[in-house]
Hints:
Elements: H1 15-20, H2 25-42, E1 46-49, E2 53-56, E3 59-62, E4 68-71, E5 74-78, E6 83-86, E7 102-104, E8 107-110, H3 118-135
Antiparallel strand pairs: 1-2, 2-5, 3-4, 5-6, 6-8, 7-8
Helix pairs in contact: 2-3
Amino acid sequence: MGKAGNKTAETQADVEAFLAAVEPAERRDDGRVVAALMARLSGEPPRLWGPSIIGFGRYHYRYDSGREGDAPRIAFSPRKAELVFYLSGLGEGELPGLGRHRRGKGCLYVKRLSDIDMAVMEALIVQSLEHMDGTYPR
């Protein structure tokens, strides 16, 4: 790890226990669906990173500044207000066909899975995994 260390590190916490405590119930159910989808697409088991991020796979990064660390290849967090997806390689701007969402720096925010087209979301996750494989080969 870099000098300061990472704030979000992989833990040994129980992912299912974490998901069971997510509120509201709709977010908990959506979280379980996303966890199963990401596990299937990545071929990796879910792991808790920090207190609230569920990640799949891992990669090691090293910046020109010398900072380095490990992070999940893809991840999401079932926050109280919305689902936050941590996907890379999606480019800038809108994601046509996805449905109701918003973008942040490196994040995709969705209020509920019923607001989006799950086939488009699956394609975005696959695109992110392919980007990670090209940028950080296993």
